[in-house]
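Researcher: Let's try something more involved. This one mixes different molecule types, so please make sure each is placed in the same coordinate frame as the others.
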Amino acid sequence: MSFCSKVAMLLPVLSASGAFGEGVFVNPLRYEIVAPRGAVHEERITLRNDGNATIRLRVGLQEETAGKRRHWIEANLDPVELRPGEACERAFRLAVPDDASGELRARVVFSSEGNEVEMGAMRMTSRLAVPVYVVISGTEVRAAEVLEIWECAGFPGWMEVVVANRGNVHIRPEGELRILDADGRAMLVRVPVNEWGYPVLPGETVALRTGPMRGGRGPGPRFAEATLKFDGSEITSRHVVQPLEKNEGVFPGIGKSP
Amino acid sequence: MHNECGNRIWRRAAIAVLIAMPMLVFDRAFCDPPREEVQVTAVINRGISWISLPESSASWSGFVVPDVFYRFNSNILTCRFFAANGPWDIRIYHTNGITRDALRGVAFVGGTWRTNWLQVKVWHPSLGPTNFYAEGILPNPMDNNVWNHALGIRDWQNSPSFFARQAWDMGSPVPFHLIVNGYDAYPATYQGNVFFELSIP
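Model: All components are placed in one shared frame. Result:
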């Protein structure tokens, strides 16, 4: 009984079909806001149906601020129905609590409705999200540390710089990595790090990918020096490059909890 | 005498006002701290994006190691998306932002009805054998690589799973594979929602 019902529960053969139609225009796709405690602010997101069928979107708010739950962001959560070519705006309003510090984060999400993929008892729904970051001015601490530099598993010629965010707001460290010889003097190659500005959230440790590297590889120990800039700060850190086997089992580019 | 005293007081008051007024004006104009305002510092525009879920059939199979754990695995599915600006994130949630909705089942256990919750996790085929069904090997939900995908935020029902975080890791289409860890699951019929989310973080 137990095994059978467990298998039955989850799921025989199922059928599926495309969900979020192509051509949903969402603008903007990200908000970063600096606001003092007590501030109240409103922004708008434009939605447009660029597909050729009517779509119905559910609207949700996903609060992501760690710790105490706060109701600092509000939006009209009524579903949106758009005919082909039709557009509308959906406002969200934020009110920064008087005792908040660091930053507040949330996502305004738009899910397809009535077009989900049924998988037996499980439904899969696709959605687009607009992240909202609110840095609370006067309370922010920006600090980061490079923990390790290693070769990227499964991506020969790429490196990863493991960055820990020690502050209380997100950062987007960008810069360059210099691979040095075994003496740590001559520079063999220089590559950009995190050109896309991927964020590292407070308390998070993320392996930031470099661009592809030509040269600078070979047997023996090597040094790497990372120089990263974010929000007017700069950190430089030198490490022995950790070989691939040290990095085995870690999915490239995945953020790792500290 | 009285008059003289009164005049002196008036004179002093007038002088004080004459000194204080320009100071007040100057203070208003130059010495007030600037009022803090809300600034929108970064906005990602040109947001034509879409995400679409598997277009092919999905199937599930169960796997059991007696007294250790149960697991349920889907076949490899594909997610297609277009993100107007990189880098992109795709996350899997058990919540739609309004309600939490992990797979839930009610079972009659020990004379009482109990609710049990199951978490759906994601596995990228690059982490294991690409043809695991042919090889008879199934991803283990207790594996570190799977747990790495479930970044704990508050609790597992809310925690998203990531299966790609940076634009240069993989482009669309992205193959993925869903796993349910049925360890300690009571026999019941489970149901719920899984949300696939595309964003430019």
